Amino acid sequence: xxxxxxxxxxxxxxxxxxxxxxxxxYKYEGPLDLRLNPEKGATAAERLREIDREEFCGMMIExxxxxYAEEISQEVFNRFRRGQAVETTTQLKEAIEAALSFxxxxxxxxxxxxxxxxxxxxxxxxxxxxxxxxxxxLDKLPGVLKPGGRAAILTFHSGEDRIVKKSxxxxxxxxxxxxxAGDVIRPSAEECRMNSRAHSTKMRWAIKxxxxxx
Length: 214
Fold this sequence. Notes:
The protein is an alpha+beta fold. It contains nine helices and four strands. It has a four-stranded mixed sheet with strand order 1-2-4-3.
């Protein structure tokens, strides 16, 4: 450094998601792990045993905007109290299905699918301290760009995008960036057709101020 251009892709590797042994998805039976580095830290199953119901509820709201966080956290911790395990991807999915049994039948399948995706996302973010790492990256970003240098960040859910948007705005007001994206850039319909996992992607960019000393 300092760098002319930095691109940060915050997505998780599809190869990791598709490996049942890593526990990243409710679609396959596997251990409830979700660690990006399987050699480090507690698994998602262990984290659920470490925290209380209120913490789990807050985690789902903060990390993935889960609208049924209260019902899901209640069901999971009711299972713990009954001595039932929530240690596999299937066991967590079954708890979510049970928590949402009050949803009208014609809407239930799609609602459960979306909630499963959000709950697994919330746990993955927590297990890997993803937001903490993102805050640190954004804080250091202006310091490693050349004056006039550009940064672009690809995010994949609203929590990440909010953090990036807020950081860029604050640093623009502070004079560290001369320009920032006025709105997100989204993939085209054609790109989404070719790569279905691109549909949730948002990109924001910033340009380092020429006279910034950071």
